[in-house]
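[09:14] KT: can someone run the structure on this one? pasting the chain below
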Amino acid sequence: MDLFTSENTSIQLELPGADILYYPLFLKKENANQLYNILINTIQWQQDDIKVFGKTYKQPRLTALYANNSKTYSYSNITMKPIPFTEELLMIKSSVENISSKKFTTCLLNLYRDGKDSNGWHADNEKELGPEPTIASVSLGEERWFHFKHKTKNLKQKINLQHGSLLLMQGKTQENWLHQIPKSKKIINPRINLTFRSIE
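[09:31] RB: done, structure tokens below
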């Protein structure tokens, strides 16, 4: 089954000190719909606790970690243990690898249940990802705004990540830029985000 479009034209985001490509038509719409329905119902979603200024809160989204190895992934004082890749995740991973010419071992999935779920300012720069990591982010479901903010300069940018799209962040992007998914009062439908990365 050919899930992926032949119209994989990329848009280069013009951000200094970053290498970011956006593929709005990564997945065919009908297949994006099918994958969304499968993943939202079959992924082993969990909600971890996070500590902010000494207080413990429920993380404002659900997450899951899948991989082809047993390497854990840690961020925000959370350590996740991976589950073996499913057939659907392997299929998506293969196509992402073809486009990016990178190999990925791990996928951190996020489920934003509605507009109240979010992800604060951060960079994917954990030591287990190595220098200049490539992060490949596939979006399914509700469109959400993805914000960028430069770490030292007064520069900001945002992009609306649409259903079935791929955002590829490479090079020094994580070194120079932060990103977030802000809350939204308008959003009522869920969004699934698959972030492929390599943990050796």
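[09:33] KT: thanks! The mean pLDDT is 93.
[09:34] RB: yep, looked fine to me
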